Amino acid sequence: TQLLEQSPQFLSIQEGENLTVYCNSSSVFSSLQWYRQEPGEGPVLLVTVVTGGEVKKLKRLTFQFGDARKDSSLHITAAQPGDTGLYLCAGDLGGKLIFGQGTTLQVKP
Amino acid sequence: SAVISQKPSRDICQRGTSLTIQCQVDSQVTMMFWYRQQPGQSLTLIATANQGSEATYESGFVIDKFPISRPNLTFSTLTVSNMSPEDSSIYLCSVAANTEAFFGQGTRLTVV
């Protein structure tokens, strides 16, 4: 049983398109984080959301934390080939990070 | 922030042998975490390594198969014992600092 359900697991789009990745759980998290990972490297933190309903923007990336702190979304506007990578959501559960399945994003020029 | 050095970065090992992966952090941290990741897939927590006490293992992982050492606040090792091809994976160590997790670059293990 996956504690954090992330969808879609694979996404291939054209440059300039918008996309949204979802991360859902039945558990409440004290915080939720989004990471991006490139081949041969460890994941790198993009953002941490802590407050229910919180929205954070990072250039073309918009992150939202659900009101009940059980779900989150990542929206990318006008995707670029440089956005290609593995995106992971992770929930803080008592000091341990639990990861979703990951979304492999491919942005074609 | 924290900088993590992990080695080896990759290895090809014979089945039945063991490999020890080292993780060095540039600052003192209370907890270090070891994850396993299949290429292109998510991370699965193996265990939490605490200095001065035994590691805490997640369901499906046991100390005999993945012994962990934590001799001080900046260093940890994970051993993959009696390897089989099913152990082929990427192994990552991680630390938490100010609610952010930092990761080593990973060890890509292939068991033949």
Task: Name some characteristics of this structure.
heterodimer, A: 109 residues, mainly beta, 6-stranded mixed β-sheet, B: 112 residues, 7-stranded mixed β-sheet, 4-stranded antiparallel β-sheet, 54% strand
Short description:
With 109 residues, chain A is mainly β. Chain A has strands spanning 5-7, 10-14, 19-24, 32-37, 44-49, 55-58, 61-65, 71-76, 85-93, 96-99, 103-108. The N and C termini of chain B lie far apart (37 Å).
Characterization of the model:
- The complex is a heterodimer of chains A (109) and B (112).
- Chain A is mainly beta.
- Chain A contains no helices and eleven strands.
- Chain A has strands at residues 5-7, 10-14, 19-24, 32-37, 44-49, 55-58, 61-65, 71-76, 85-93, 96-99, 103-108.
- In chain A, the strands form two sheets. In chain A, strands 2, 4, 5, 9, 10 and 11 form a six-stranded mixed sheet that branches. In chain A, strands 1-3-8-7-6 form a five-stranded antiparallel sheet, with no helix packed on it.
- In chain A, strand 7 (61-65) and strand 8 form a beta hairpin.
- The radius of gyration of chain A is 13 Å and the shape is globular.
- The N and C termini of chain A lie far apart (36 Å).
- The model of chain A has no long low-confidence stretch (mean pLDDT 93).
- Chain B has 112 residues and is mostly beta strands.
- Chain B is built from no helices and eleven strands.
- In chain B, the strands form two sheets. In chain B, strands 2, 4, 5, 6, 9, 10 and 11 form a seven-stranded mixed sheet that branches. Chain B has a four-stranded antiparallel sheet with strand order 1-3-8-7, with no helix packed on it.
- In chain B, strand 5 and strand 6 (56-57) form a beta hairpin.
- The chains are: A mainly beta (109), B mainly beta (112).
- The A-B interface holds A 6, 31, 33, 35, 39-45, 48, 50, 86, 88, 90, 92, 95-102, 104 and B 4, 31, 33, 39-45, 48, 92, 94, 96, 99-106, 108.
